[in-house]
Each structure stands twice: as structure tokens, then as C-alpha cells.
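Supplementary Note 3. Input sequence used for the single-chain structure prediction.
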Amino acid sequence: MKTRLDQMLSGLLLAGLSLAIVLMLVGAGLAATRLAGGMEHAGSISDLPRALAALEPAGFVDLGLLVLLATPVARVLALLVGFATRRAWLFSAVSLVVLAVLALSVVIGVRS
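The predicted structure, written as C-alpha cells, is reproduced below.
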């Protein structure tokens, strides 16, 4: 029997994966309709809104990849909240450590 937390996590992962796939397929579809070959990816995350507004295929692919990367982070955050509301402090602490490691990896990745 699935608990409410399990169902919420399953829905979260499915929604994140589905959204990422749709965004990347839209990008691939836009790239296929353009005559010029190749896609230039956005230089930074701050360039993403401009690329999406201009309907650039790379903007949709990049956003899809960001959603795909953010989905597990959202899962860990949901677990942290779920464990904390159940007062399962050991599991909350483990979730917090995992979240800190993920945040540290993002910081290190952005700096290099």
C-alpha cells in the first residue's frame, strides 16, 4: 500500500520527466522545421528567457535539461518536508545532507 508521500513523489517525478520530455521535443521539432542546421545553446541561464521568447530550439532543449536536472532536487526537498512533518528527524537530517551535497555540486559546477 502506497502512502501519500509515495504517491506525491511518484507524481512529482512523473510530472518533471514529462515536462522535460515535452520541452525537449518542442525544441527538436522547432530545430527540424528550420532550414539552417545546428543549434546554438544559450550562453547562460539568464539568456534562457530571450531564447524561449524568440522560439529558439536550443532554449527549449536547455530548459528541458534544467527541468530534468531539477526534478531529483525537488524530490529530495519533498522528502525533507515529508519526513519533517512526520518528525522523522534522522531521515530529515539525511535528506538535508543530500540537499546540501546537491547544492554544493551546483555551486562548484557554476564556478568552473
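The mean pLDDT is 89. The chain has four helices and no strands.
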